[in-house]
User: Which sequence fits this backbone?
């Protein structure tokens, strides 16, 4: 019997933002590839009122097709009214009104069995409304910021908790995220950990010297992959650079902090050793990870960062803060921390055969840890082994089994 899934996601790529929500897209495609599963994606676009809608960013979104085949998925992109900065609490009602007629038409034509919401806000509360209207169960997946930020904001906390309470089941990207959900007031009994996947064929070790030559760099390379926003902490890495005189720092990602990070690098006299690469296409990331000697990410919060797993799949060690699923990633099956002294003493050096180190969220701690990691020879085979359990096949199988259970 075919399971018909309505995937609801405000995190989904499009022609103007090919890297946006790429892991939601990959998960949806994996599910759709399973025999007995049929997936329809609704990826609403928030558009502000005129004249803000004339801004280049929103104008490009308005030109996107309302319905299209995105790779092997049917994707609908209805528009809803979004008021930047002040309209958080209004998005649920606005989005529900905008997409309900479309959902009703699709459901009447071929009934859905379950709604799979890919993010807690506003996707979760909207899925709750749709569930009531259609009389079918829904699930919500927690990924990080949706719990750590939207789950704590006064304007959105109540809606997040209500969506969690009303869901037939919940997903978390890590055990740590599940604990955060429980602490927020959600039911741990109906929450399942659902790890992300990585394409182990593409994200694999390559010749490091050749990868460096591809980018025209030599010597130690530190890479950081993530949006240029305060929560990711790239400024801490730049502040560490004066203590790492032979290293180059490459920042892959875009965001509002880009100009400030460039100014900081110039002020500290390391501008010639800090490169802001902008948004790097996902297909180009493997060679970039291979060019790096360390991938560093001083995040204030995470769920289970894909950049951590991708770097390890390429045999590149990671220096990360003790947030989200970091300890799950750097602890082996026997329960021994990957570099026990690093887990208990953030400034300790991680042995070269290990996959990474947990670092205190200060520039001094990152300077110390990176300095020690850059003079070691990592065991790239052992590092990659840590990432081998994060496959898209396992992700898709687990999701199909879970959604079938919710749909009965």
Assistant:
């Amino acid at each position: 019997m075919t399971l018909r899934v309505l995937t609801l996601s405000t995190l989904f790529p499009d022609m103007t933002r090919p890297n946006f929500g790429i892991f939601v897209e990959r998960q949806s495609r994996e599910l759709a590839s399973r025999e007995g599963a049929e997936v329809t994606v609704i990826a609403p676009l928030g558009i502000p009122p005129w004249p803000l809608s004339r801004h280049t960013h929103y104008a490009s979104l308005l030109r996107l097709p309302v319905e299209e085949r995105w790779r092997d998925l049917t994707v609908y992109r209805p528009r809803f009214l979004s008021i930047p900065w002040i309209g958080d609490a209004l998005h649920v009602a606005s989005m529900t009104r905008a997409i309900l007629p479309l959902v009703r038409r699709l459901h009447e034509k071929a009934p859905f069995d379950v709604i799979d919401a890919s993010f807690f806000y506003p996707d979760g509360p909207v899925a709750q409304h749709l569930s009531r209207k259609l009389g079918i169960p829904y699930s919500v997946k927690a990924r990080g910021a949706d719990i750590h930020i939207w789950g704590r904001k006064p304007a959105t906390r109540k809606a997040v908790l209500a969506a969690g309470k009303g869901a037939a089941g919940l997903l978390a990207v890590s055990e740590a995220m599940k604990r955060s959900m429980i602490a927020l007031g959600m039911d741990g009994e109906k929450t399942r950990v659902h790890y992300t996947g990585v394409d182990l064929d593409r994200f694999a070790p390559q010749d490091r010297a050749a990868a460096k030559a591809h980018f025209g760099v030599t010597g130690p390379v530190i890479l950081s992959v993530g949006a240029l926003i305060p929560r990711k902490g790239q400024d801490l890495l730049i502040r560490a650079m004066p203590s790492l005189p032979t290293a180059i720092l490459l920042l892959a990602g875009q965001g509002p902090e880009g100009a400030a990070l460039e100014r900081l690098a110039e002020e500290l006299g390391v501008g010639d050793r800090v490169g802001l690469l902008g948004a790097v296409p996902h297909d180009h990331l493997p060679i970039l990870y291979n060019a790096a000697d360390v991938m560093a990410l001083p995040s204030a919060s995470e769920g289970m960062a894909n950049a951590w797993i991708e770097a390890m799949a390429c045999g590149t060690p990671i220096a990360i803060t003790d947030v989200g699923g970091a300890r799950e990633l750097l602890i082996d099956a026997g329960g021994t921390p990957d570099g026990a002294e690093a887990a208990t003493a953030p400034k300790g050096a991680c042995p070269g055969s290990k996959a990474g180190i947990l670092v205190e969220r200060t520039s001094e701690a990152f300077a110390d840890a990176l300095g020690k990691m850059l003079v070691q020879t990592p065991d790239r085979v052992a590092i990659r082994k840590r990432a081998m359990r994060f496959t898209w096949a396992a992700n898709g199988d687990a999701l199909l089994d879970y959604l079938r259970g919710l749909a009965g």
